[in-house]
Design a protein that fits this description.
about 20% strand, 3-stranded antiparallel beta sheet, about 290 residues, alpha/beta
Amino acid sequence: MDINVLKNFLVLAETLHFTKSSDKAFIAQPALSRQIKQLEESLNAQLFKRDRRNVELTPAGKYFKTEMERLVNQFDHAAKRTAQLHQGEAGEIRIGYTYSVMQSFLPGMIRHINEILPDIHTVLLEINNKQQAIDLKNKEIDIGFSTNPVISDDLKSKVLLRDNFAVVLPLDHPVSPENFEDLSVFANDRFILPPRSEGSLYVGTVESIFIEAGFLPNIVHKTPFASTGIRLVEAGLGITVEPMSSLRNYPGIIKYIELKDTLQKAELTMLWHPELETDMPRVIDLLMNFGI
């Protein structure tokens, strides 16, 4: 008895016709008859009543049909899921991300994965650049989406989006997009920036914008969370710098000046452990080719 014999039994139990069943199962009729006879012998039960004109299920056959439909369906599901897991088309993927990535392309990217690979379940964790690198190495997350991360040699990466930075201001700040001339006007402002330990390259990139303008930013508040920094700006506690993609959900509570002409850009970057290319190749392929 094997799964193919059980499937052939179910075909016959459905059609109740040996010739039609043998055609449908792509097996010669004598071979199908032998399979059914051997199956009945192994079960020590008659499954079909048959004569020259009719084939009928016995009570034992009806019971066996119901149970085998459930078993074969479970087998097919398990076989499909096993193949999907092997090919990286099912299972769970853990994604670390920074705020600006979530505010830009990440929701659409996750939706794209779910549409193509509905059996992939995603776990989303907001994690700073430094912790993402640690968690990727320890395989506590599968993929990281960072902004201007420091990339170690044992991880792979791809820049998905280069975004302009913007200076974020409270609504009553005297500088506006209309009267802004150059960054030197912010030399005496109080700044809210992430701690350098949260992402040294990112913070260094932001600071370099103002160093090139001739001053060091006066950092009076530090927070690793962009949403917190923006709320502190709204409260008038200082100004900050964020990628443009971080500012989509704050209409009417802050204002900002996009720094279109600065060489420094927010590089929204995907990072992953090389082993993921073997474990979940379809996921990596979808992410690498996702149009942003």
